[in-house]
User: Fold these one by one.
Assistant:
Number 1:
Amino acid sequence: MNALLEARGLSKHFGGVQALDGLDLLVAPNEILGLIGPNGSGKTTFFNVITGIYAADGGRITFDGSDVTNASARAIYQAGISRTFQRSRLSLPLSIFDNIMIGNHKRLNQGLWFNLVKRSDFKREFERSYADARALVEVFEPGLADRMFEPVAGLPMIDRRRIEICRALINAPKLLLLDEPSAGMTHDETAELMNDILLVRARNKDLTIIIVEHEMGVIERITDRCVVLNFGRKIAEGPYRAVAADAQVQEAYLGAA
Amino acid sequence: MDAGLFAQYVMNGLMLGMMYALVAVGFTLFFGVLDVIKFSHGDVLTVGAFTALATYIGLHTLGLNSNWLNLVVMLVLATLAMALLGMAIARYLVMPLRSAPALNTLLITLMLGTVLRECVRLFYPQGANPKPFPALLPRTSFDFGDFNLRVDNVLMLAAGVLVIVGIQYLLNRTKLGLAIRAVAQDEETARTMGINFTAIVLVTFALGSGLAAFAGVMNGLYYNEINFGIGLYLGVVGFAAAIIGGLGSIYGAILGGFLFAGLQTIGTVMLPFASAYKDVFAFAVVIAIMAWRPTGLIREKISERV
Amino acid sequence: MAGKGHAALWPGVAALAIATAYVVALLAAEKQSLIIILLAIGIVAVLAAAWFGLLENVSASFTDHEDSLAICAVAAACVVGAIFHDNHFVLLLVITVLLYSVATLGLNIQFGYAGVLNFAGASFFGIGAYTSAVLNTHTALPHLLVLLIGGVLAALAGSLLLLPVLRTRGHYAAVVTIAFALLFKTFLEVNDVLGGPQGMQVKGMRILGWSFNDNIDIGRVSLSFYMNYFVLSLLLLVATFVLVRRLERSWIGLNLDALRLDETAASCFGLDIVRWKITAFLIGNFFIGTAGALFGMVGGFVAPNNYTFADSLILVSILLLGGIGNPWGLLVATIIVVVVPEKLQTIQEYRFLLYALMVIAVLLFRPEGLLPRPVRRYFPGWRP
């Protein structure tokens, strides 16, 4: 298969801790890949290395045909990878609209002249962006669509996570990395969130998703394929059912029998 | 340059380095324990120096003229007073702002520094003018060619070394030091291990501020004069030294202090006609080092969970 | 006027009118006792307004009708100028408020929007002022151009200073700017070329032959020569204010907020942190330097003693008191910080101490400042 994202022999250590240990991982275009494993197995580190927050100590990363192994976070974004964070990282004093627009950076005109002088052109771009952001928010939570200029600080956690996903989706990325999107949510809220993500994916055929989750129900329901990590290495891969039945995986999660 | 002159420069550099190192160690202690930059540190030094001076004047008025005794009393009083001040600062200004952005703590301590400085300037009798500081150490000196070795400088250097060694011992060999290092590394775990976080923070601030008082007295003895602005200058230098050494590392702070003094000395040698530029030179090099090694020569301990 | 806001216009107008009347009274008062009474009334009035929720009405009014109210504010300034048209002292005070406001607006871009610490604001102000001094004395450059050059030099000096440390954490920029603030004054004092501790004279402004340093006579009315500078300063403030507002209400303002609030996340969404920090710093310093250059010409001389670290802290105090990021709060705070010590001569000596204490109180009890910064509204009164 022609991989959209491929990691070969990826390694990363922090002092004495080997967080990623020669990891090989492939993501096919348009698939939803689940990334699971016990705590500390390297899932978030993997995301952080892919998105350029940490530099890999070894190995290669290829995205959409190009080598992005030591690319900066900015370059990764420009290439079309967007993400959410394990602990919600929104700019709390800013409005919903502002937070989503942060994700829209590459599609907005950043020139000084445009922003300061050509105000009517800017207004047009602003209104277009507002419409886009609003449409996206409506998918996830119609109630928020009328409150686009409220500060995010006043929103409950579940709404914040939705906004964070909107922020990651607004620039039409090729690859979306979701880091434990359902953390802190109830079962129903999680189910609803997953429906909305699938809805977005249905409208946007080009979207590939890697989702890190601890809730296996989610993984089972929405992923096409899973990769299981333990101690920074891949120990199993395949559809969820197959992976869940794997003895090595069970041992990783539950300890030796 | 002949050996005597060289030795003189080295001696001056060591003295300055010692003072900067003492201030830098304070900064690094505060940062290590609470992740805060306490900008009032330098001005605490000033208040310490003035406290010592006031004590001396008090003792003198009482007719007590023994140099050694006076010096000891001054040191003890200034150190204790500043330790108390440091604890008060921690308790009432720094700890309440723990949940606020780090910028607020920086600003509040900066403003506090101004308050301390202005209080000295406005409320100490003729505080705006430089004040003579008594020469309490033996005035003898030995000449080796161009090199004038002053006994009081040697004594101060020795005292400084003792203090630094003492701090190292405290931090590395005692239970208190262990607690301080534990809190510096990981507050939550330290708490769960039964360490009284607030108490440790207060003790650390007391320690750092006491150090400032000691450095202030040393400063006064070295220059035979103090003024309300010395703390500001020493604070900036000490802070810069702590940064290039790597915030959070005691060795780094000491290294940074002596490095800065070394740079100043080189600057003085290179530009004999304009000694004011020695500071420009030293800071320019510091900025260059910061650009090259943003986390300091010994790594700054940043932990940010992404 | 499609989509005009829900909030009423009159609370804003009323607030402006009352504030203007108050400021006029304060400026006109001479006796210390009267001034103290006025100040007490002012404090009580503001506290009462806050208690009764009136400040919120005013705030909403400003949010939706900012453009109209800004025009009213300019008119109010003109009224103040007209009332004191022959009073040198008051006009100079008003000009000081106007130019300090420009400088603090510049500082706000750096500090309030981009989160870049600048504790050398007064030094950059001084660079602008000394530029005026040197260029006016030694060259025949047109004076408006000199203003621009002052701004550009301040911007350049700032970028040289900050570029190396922009990749580091905030407190590094703090050390660098504090060190610069301390060294700048020493540098000026040891330089006889720049007048040493005594400073230099600055030739007054001349534009196309019109000298700014001569009193103006219109019929039987004699205007203080400071009116020339007053008009120019007001124009500068208006231009700066408009630019700063537009900056905030644009994608650039958003970028600055994003990088101030969360650098890591911002870079994950494509923001070039260093580029935007330096842009903010340059623009901010440009305003500071330009204001300083004009102020040098207004005062007629420059000296190292006016551009110390303590003066930089005054600018920072204005920012914190007024409410970081809120230009209207900034204007109010500037008026308070500049006017009150001048009128209450007894506290002049204590002003550094007092402002430091006030800022400590603000940081402990009301960190948002006098007028907290509202959520970004790209076009006042715009409704979807």
Note: Chain A touches chain C through 42 residues (CB under 8 Å).
Number 2:
Amino acid sequence: MWLIAIAACMAVAVYGFILSGQAVRLEREHDTLQAELRDKQQRNQRLGELVAQARAIQVQQSSEMNELIQLQKRITTRDQFLLTSGDKIIRQLAVYAPSSERRMILYVPAGNHSLVYAIKEVLGTPSETYSALAEWGNDHRQIQGTTEIPLVGETVYELRTVVKKGMDSSISIQLIGPGDKAVHEDSFPLSRLAFQGLNNWQNDSEIFATYPNEIRSAGDAKTHVDAKKSAPVTPLLTFTLDHLGGKDQNSEGRVKMRFWIDSDSPPCMSDISVAESYDFLSGNLRHAPQLTKSQAIDKTFQPYDGSGRYYFTDGYFGESNRFGP
Amino acid sequence: MKFTIRALIVLTLLVALSARAFLQWQRIVRVKADIVSVTTEINRLNFDAEYVDSHTKVCELAIANNPLPSPYFLAAKQRHEETAVTSQGNAK
């Protein structure tokens, strides 16, 4: 009986010893995991703070732009244009011009840029012209017969579009550069039809500011495909000119004009836009294309011509997000 | 009497050892529960480390490259003030 009692004591002691060893091992594992958790929490907290800071910067930049829009509303000439520096293309439509004339003040940042425009006239019923012109110009790169005017970087221009009505109807385009000199002048004869005034200006009287060839995040565009379509060029504005309905069907028609900036810089996304797109909770980008984790930042974070600023180019967003032709 | 004392010693030893084993078992259960909790939290935060580091660097670069107020904003405001001063001077 004593032997049984001693054996029981020994068994319990050994079992206790094994449990003790297991507990020590588990506690070490627990400590390691705790350290890993602390590390992850600190890393994510740091990123969270940086993302919040990036968002605050973007909000502040937007607020600055709104303030400038208020100041710019009083501007009537190219010389008075306030935004004469910076790395964004800025255009403002001057609302003081007569109805047959439109004026656009344009600032282009450092780098090589061209103002490109195209004019197309289609005769027919409103539905016919609408479908013909809707197809025309969906993709800037597919438009034939464009006119290209080289621009000097960090310069303010004024673009005047004048519609002449009557028997010799025409649209004249004039680009005024430094010293109020005409950099470009051209005229496009239209069908001998009566016209209504210029209409359908997009974002009329508003300032439009964008980085050259800026990739819009999916939050702005409906899809990434939409975002990429506009990437190779920077659309400035589109407007139409309606023919008045005359005595016969053939007197109806519509003219469409498109203006955009073609820049040497590659399609890109601003650094602050990429930074603020990070969704801290999911660990993903909310609207911007998915970052390729293995991409070296210094290879895709490139300087934009002469401006001293850096942008993320398409390489940063991986093969799956390559742009179109 | 001698038997009773021995029996008591053995019994006490057995109880003590059992209690120790029980405490160790409880310790294991507690640590295991903690490990499950920490692992769950790690999995919740388990964003790709390289990705997080990469984006941290992006944020650092972006913040460094976007001083506030923006230089172009300051330049535009200065130009606006200069224009306003000139206009007032001309008016006088």
Note: The first helix of chain A runs from residue 2 to 72.
